[in-house]
Amino acid sequence: MGKIFRYISDSFDHELIDRPCGVCGDIDSPRYLYVCELGDDAIWDEYGVCAPCINSGRVQKDAYEIDRISEVIVRNSGDLPSLIESFHKIPYVTRSIQVPDWPICCGDWCEFVGHPKDRDSLDGLTKEYQDWRGGPWGTEFNAEYELLPELLEDVCLFVCLNCEKKYHIHGGT
Ligand SMILES: [Zn+2]
Ligand SMILES: [Zn+2]
After folding, report:
1. Are 58 and 33 in contact (CB under 8 A)?
2. 90 C-alpha to center of ligand 1: Å?
3. CB-hemisphere CA count at 13 Å for 85?
4. d(Cα 115, Cα 118) in Å, to the nearest integer?
5. What is the Å distance from ligand 1's center to 60 Cα?
6. In angstroms, what is the span from residue 33 Cα to ligand 2's centroid?
7. Cβ(35)–Cβ(47) under 8 Å?
8. Which ligand is nearest to the CA of 109?
9. What is the C-alpha separation between 133 and 23, in angstroms, rounded?
10. Ligand nearest to the CA of 47
């Protein structure tokens, strides 16, 4: 479990934004990527937002994203209000997941642990990490096949905070 963000490993190297926090204007603590509506005119854009603002729920994802992730929560029998509330507190770690998605296991969001380190670590990855596409995907849990992402960043790795089961999402195009 991350100390900065519950569902993101602290070892993950975030893309930081070189602008003041879009909510409180802070420039001293790191600003994380967050896509939302901010400002007097509620402009939808990419902002840099500090961890305290994100963790206190001062920024919220947009209705489209919440609609889509609600389907994932319901499909995987998660507690809708509580998982939506915690989903707002997850900054944007990747641009490779185009449809809002995030693995749920043991009734909670999994922790994002990063991307495969190198091409070699793709070997056998699908055997270790359950494929996730809005839910556990594929009938054979241990289905082994070759992952050939264009970029290593297209593969996002997760681990359940409770049972330590591992999941991957293959985003990209
Ligand atoms: Zn802030
Ligand atoms: Zn689990």
Report:
1. no
2. 14
3. 5
4. 9
5. 13
6. 27
7. yes
8. 2
9. 32
10. 1
The pLDDT of 43-64, averaged and rounded, is 95
Average pLDDT for the chain? 91
How far does the centroid of ligand 1 lie from the alpha carbon of residue 105, in Å?
30
Ligand nearest to C-alpha 49: 1
Around Cβ 71, how many Cβ atoms within 10 Å?
14
- Domain ranges in the chain? 31-170
β partners of residue 132: 136
CA of 107 to the centre of ligand 2 (A): 8
pLDDT at 141: 54
The DSSP-derived string for the chain is --SSBTTB-TTS-PPB-SS--TTT---SS-EEEEEEEETTTTEEEEEEEEHHHHHTT-S---HHHHHHHHHHHHHTT--HHHHHHHHTT-----SS--S----EETTEEPEEEE--SSGGGGTTHHHHSEEBSSSB-SS-TT-------SSGGGEEEEE-TTT--EEEEE---
Residue 39: pLDDT band with limits 50, 70, 90: confident
What's the pLDDT tens digit per position in 116-167? Answer: 999 999 988 988 999 999 999 875 555 667 778 889 999 999 999 999 999 9
Beta-bridged to residue 49, according to DSSP, are: 32
